[in-house]
C-alpha cells in the first residue's frame, strides 16, 4: 500500500496528542511505500502500532504481529512514555523500524531421565544430555535414546561438541565431578557411543568444558583453567590404586590424554568456560569469585578481567555484537570486554541463580535472532530475551510430568538450557528434558506465510 501524503490515524474530534512517524523495515515481504510521515496517537503501544502497520499493508483480515524499534531499542511502553523518557516532544518526527514479533514458545515434549539433568547440547536433529547418574545420552526427536555413554564415575557437569557427532574424530566432550573429561564418538549407525579418550590432570570437579576443532578448554571447582589438544597422542590407560592391587593389566581401558596447560585462573570455582566462536585462541571464564576473565590461550595469560560484584554462574559469548553475557544471582549482565565495563543496565527478572545461558541459532533470513538468547535459573524458569529490551519477552515454566519415585525431590531448578533449530531445550532437578518450540521457528513460519 502506498502513502503519498501525511496520513492521520487518530480518530477525528479527539484530544489525543499525535506524533509523526516514518515507518521502515528491512523485511521486503511486509514493506510499503511511504513518502511522508504518518500521524499516530502518542498513546499507542506495540499492539496499536501493529494495527496501524497492518492497516497500511491491507492486512486487516490476517494481521501480522509486529514489534517496533526506535533508535535500536524495542518499544515496550506507549509512544508517549518513550518520548517522555527521552525528553522529546510530540513535535518530534520518529523513525520507527517494524519487525515481525516473536511468538510465545509452545511446549512440545518432555524426555524423562533417571536423575538430574545437568548438561545439554544440540547437534543437528540430535540432543546430547549429561546427567547426575554419570551417563551421557544421545536422543532423537521422537524421545528415543539412541545411544548411552558409560565411563564417568560421578555426575556429568557439561557436554560440548564440535562438528558432526559421527565424524572420524571424537567430537563430543564431557566434564564430570569425577575430576576427568572424556571424548566420545557416535558410531555411524547412530546406536552406540564409544569413549575414545580420558582426559586427566584436574584434581577437583570439572565444572565446564568447550570444544572447537581440536581445541578443548575446561574449568574446575578449584579455579583451574585447562587447555587440551584432542589430536595429541594418547598415553596408557589409567589404573586406579584399587585396580592395581587386583593386578589389572595396562591397556585394557581407554587411553589417557594429558593437558597442554593447567593454569590457576580464579580464586574460587569456575562456573563456565567458553571459547570465542570466532577465535579459538581466546577463552572466557566466569567464576564464583565474581570475575569474568578473557584468557589468551597461546600464553595462558589474562587479557581482560572484569569484577562484577557478585558470583557468576553462567557465561555466553556473542562475538557478532562484541559482548559477553554472565548469569549472576538473580540477573544477567551484559559486558563489553573492550571497555572493561557493563554496557547497559543489568537484565532483571529471575528470582534465583542464573545457571545457564544459550544463544538463539543463527538462521538465514532471520536477522533478529542475533539479539535473542535464553536464560535458565534455579527459580524454575527459562526466560527469552531480546538484547534491545531490558525486560524478558517470555517466561517458560516447567511442565509437570509424572516422576519416578527415585527421580526428583520435587524441585524445578533449571540447570541447563540450549537453543537450536528444534527449539529451546532445558533440563534440571525435575529429571525432565523439556522442549519448547524455538522462537526463531515462529519467525520463520511467519515469514513464509
TrEMBL record:
It comes from the Eukaryota. GO terms for molecular function: ribonucleoprotein complex binding. Coiled coil: none annotated. It is found in: Nucleus, Nucleolus; Nucleus, Nucleoplasm. The keyword rRNA processing applies. WD repeats lie at residues 110-140, 149-194, 199-229, 347-395. SUPFAM superfamilies: WD40 repeat-like. It holds the Pfam family WD40. GO terms for cellular component: nucleoplasm; PeBoW complex; preribosome, large subunit precursor. Belongs to the WD repeat WDR12/YTM1 family. Component of the NOP7 complex, composed of ERB1, NOP7 and YTM1. Within the NOP7 complex ERB1 appears to interact directly with NOP7 and YTM1. The NOP7 complex also associates with the 66S pre-ribosome. This is Ribosome biogenesis protein YTM1.
Amino acid at each position: 500500500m502506498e502513502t503519498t501524503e501525511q496520513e492521520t490515524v487518530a480518530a477525528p474530534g479527539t484530544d489525543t496528542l499525535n506524533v509523526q512517524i516514518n515507518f521502515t523495515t528491512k523485511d521486503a515481504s511486509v514493506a510499503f511505500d511511504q513518502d511522508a510521515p504518518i500521524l499516530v496517537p502518542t498513546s499507542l503501544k506495540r499492539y496499536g502500532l501493529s494495527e496501524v502497520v497492518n492497516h497500511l499493508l491491507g492486512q486487516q483480515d490476517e494481521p501480522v504481529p509486529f514489534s517496533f524499534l526506535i533508535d535500536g531499542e524495542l518499544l515496550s511502553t506507549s509512544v508517549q512514555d518513550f518520548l517522555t523518557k527521552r525528553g522529546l516532544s510530540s513535535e518530534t518526527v520518529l523513525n520507527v523500524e517494524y519487525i515481525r514479533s516473536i511468538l510465545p514458545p509452545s511446549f512440545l515434549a518432555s524426555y524423562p531421565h533417571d536423575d538430574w539433568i545437568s548438561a545439554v547440547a544440540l547437534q543437528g536433529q540430535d540432543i546430547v544430555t549429561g546427567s547426575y547418574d554419570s551417563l551421557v545420552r544421545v536422543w532423537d526427536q521422537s524421545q528415543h535414546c539412541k545411544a548411552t555413554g558409560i565411563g564417568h564415575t560421578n555426575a556429568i557437569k557439561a557436554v560440548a561438541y564440535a562438528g558432526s557427532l559421527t565424524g572420524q574424530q571424537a567430537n563430543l566432550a564431557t566434564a564430570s565431578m569425577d575430576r576427568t573429561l572424556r571424548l566420545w564418538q557416535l558410531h555411524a549407525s547412530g546406536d552406540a557411543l564409544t569413549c575414545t579418550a580420558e582426559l586427566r590432570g584436574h584434581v577437583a570437579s570439572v565444572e565446564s568444558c568447550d570444544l572447537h576443532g581440536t581445541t578443548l578448554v575446561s574449568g574446575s571447582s578449584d579455579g583451574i583453567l585447562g587447555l587440551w589438544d584432542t589430536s595429541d597422542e594418547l598415553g596408557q590407560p589409567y589404573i586406579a590404586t584399587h585396580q592395581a592391587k587386583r593386578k589389572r593389566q595396562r591397556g585394557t581401558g581407554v587411553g589417557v590424554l594429558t593437558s597442554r596447560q593447567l593454569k590457576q585462573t580464579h580464586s574460587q570455582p569456575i562456573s563456565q568456560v567458553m571459547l570465542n566462536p570466532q577465535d579459538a585462541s581466546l577463552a572466557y571464564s566466569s567464576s564464583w569469585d565474581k570475575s569474568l576473565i578473557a584468557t589468551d590461550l597461546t600464553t595462558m595469560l589474562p587479557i581482560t578481567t572484569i569484577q562484577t560484584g557478585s558470583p557468576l554462574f553462567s557465561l555466553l559469548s556473542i562475538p557478532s555484537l562484541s559482548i559477553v553475557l554472565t548469569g549472576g544471582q538473580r540477573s544477567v549482565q551484559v559486558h563489553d570486554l573492550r571497555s572493561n565495563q557493563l554496557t547497559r543496565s543489568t537484565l532483571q527478572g529471575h528470582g534465583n541463580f542464573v545457571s545457564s545461558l544459550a544463544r538463539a541459532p543463527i538462521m538465514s533470513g532471520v536477522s533478529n535472532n542475533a539479539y535473542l538468547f535464553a536464560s535458565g535459573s534455579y527459580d524454575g524458569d527459562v526466560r527469552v530475551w531480546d538484547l534491545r529490551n531490558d525486560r524478558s519477552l517470555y517466561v517458560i515454566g516447567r511442565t509437570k510430568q509424572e516422576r519416578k519415585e527415585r527421580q526428583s525431590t520435587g524441585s524445578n531448578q533449571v540447570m541447563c538450557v540450549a537453543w537450536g533449530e528444534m527449539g529451546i531445550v532445558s533440563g534440571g532437578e525435575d529429571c525432565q528434558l523439556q522442549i519448547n518450540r524455538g522462537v526463531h521457528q515462529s519467525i520463520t513460519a511467519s515469514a513464509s506465510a
